[in-house]
Amino acid sequence: MTDAELMQSILQVPWVLVDYYSWLEKQPVPKLDDYLFAQPRIRFEISDADRLMLLESVKALEHNGSAAIQLSSDTPPMLVPGLQPRTLFAVVEALRQRPVLIDLPFCSGASRVECDCLLRVGFGRFIFAPEALAQLENEVAATEIVRFPASPYEIVRNYWLNVGKLTRDVDSSIDVPMDPHLFATWLRRRHVQLLLGQAFDSFYRPSSPIARVRVMPGAFYTRETRTVAAGSHQYIIEGPRIKAIAVGGEVYHRLIRMSLTQAQPGTGKNDELDWGHLITARARDDEGDSEWFLPPRPMTSVHIDRLRTDWADGLRTSGPGFPAESVASLGRFHWRFVRLHPFACANQSLAFALVNCALRRLLGYGIPQLILDQFALRHDCDDYVRLFGRAVSAWYTSATLSLERQRERIQKRQLLDRFISSLASFGNEVEAAEFVRQRPDAARLALFKDD
């Protein structure tokens, strides 16, 4: 290679990818048990430019010689490790002036390390960044980018930011490329945008286990899954696999399947293409057998064209059967996308971001992700489209203000949690089915009811 050729090669290096992979290496390993984000945990990353707000009822005090915070008169003190009481008093007093984060050490006279001690305990609990949340909520509602509506401080900030920018980008260029290859490129660009940000400066790592070892922005995951039978076991040697988790318990999933057999006839939209299948198997490091979904490979242009057709049909805002037919098409799009698993990671995040873009265009609102992707792996296309339609109907909201919308959906989530927890305690399906029948509102949220 000549010096000129080497120079040209250097100039063509995508340094943003180098930065991204360097950033990935520095991130803490995500907890595998938190893959579905079902457990409450503060994930929102605070920024130096954020203006902070302290809950008015908070008091700093000395408790048995240690620095502590009391949220209200009827709650026990909360210790703040690493801080002396007098330093805590100064930081709390500074927070009452609503400083930006970078200015907090100067306002309080405490070191940055000492300020961080309080922020680790209090951010998202009694110290907030409402202006930062409002800016993100203005782009896309927090309750429409998560599985289960909860505190917005449980959302990874760059994920929220990137979905918001992606939403705006899709909204501004809603036309669908007619050629499958162009549509494939359109999807790949959206995947890059989700992981790196619109300006390639807001990096995000998905929570799925494979993201610990394989994150390929914009690259289709074309590797085929290899399995081998040995003795009484089936083993997965390599390639893509998605764990099919019976979230909510086996009784819940069996009753869901029973509810679908009682529903209206299917649409006949299942097709002859392979869209993957479930197997019971294990990989080398698995402790035991589990249900795994193996996506279809090879992934062909015909698969992509089915996605393109469903997406285009889902964007129709008029015509016979509107909006039900458009919603059904979006359900098919989501079912195919999740099962095709075109990327190594972030498939559900991207698929549902796109689905909600279309739903907001059609109906004026999007919905939480719930466990719809898990249902897509366990049901055929017709049955899944019914479940998707139930979700769109059950999680409707007429609230226009973000706080009202968030409060309404968190209340629905709490009702759903109590219902599913109670359902899991039944030992037989007859008793469980009667429990479902007696609680129609919760059953609707759990996707048992057709409207």
List keywords for this structure.
single chain; 17 helices; 10 strands; three-stranded antiparallel beta sheet; 451 residues; 46% helix; globular; mainly alpha
Layout of strands and helices, then pairs:
Layout: H1 3-11, H2 15-26, E1 53-54, E2 59-63, E3 66-70, E4 78-79, H3 85-95, H4 104-108, H5 112-122, E5 127-128, H6 130-139, H7 157-172, H8 180-196, E6 226-230, E7 233-238, E8 242-243, H9 250-261, E9 277-281, E10 290-294, H10 301-314, H11 324-340, H12 347-363, H13 372-378, H14 381-394, H15 402-423, H16 429-437, H17 440-445
Antiparallel strand pairs: 1-5, 2-3, 3-4, 6-7, 8-10, 9-10
Biggest pleated sheet: 3 strands, antiparallel
The number of helical elements comes to 17
Q: What does the radius of gyration come to? A: 24 Å
The overall pLDDT average reads 92
Strand proportion: 5-15%
Structural class: mainly alpha
The low-pLDDT segments are: none
Compressed to H and E, one letter per element, the order equals HHEEEEHHHEHHHEEEHEEHHHHHHHH
What's the helical proportion of residues?
Answer: 40-55%
What characteristic shape results from the CA principal axes? globular
Q: How many domains comprise the coordinates?
A: 2
Main-sheet strand order equals 2-3-4
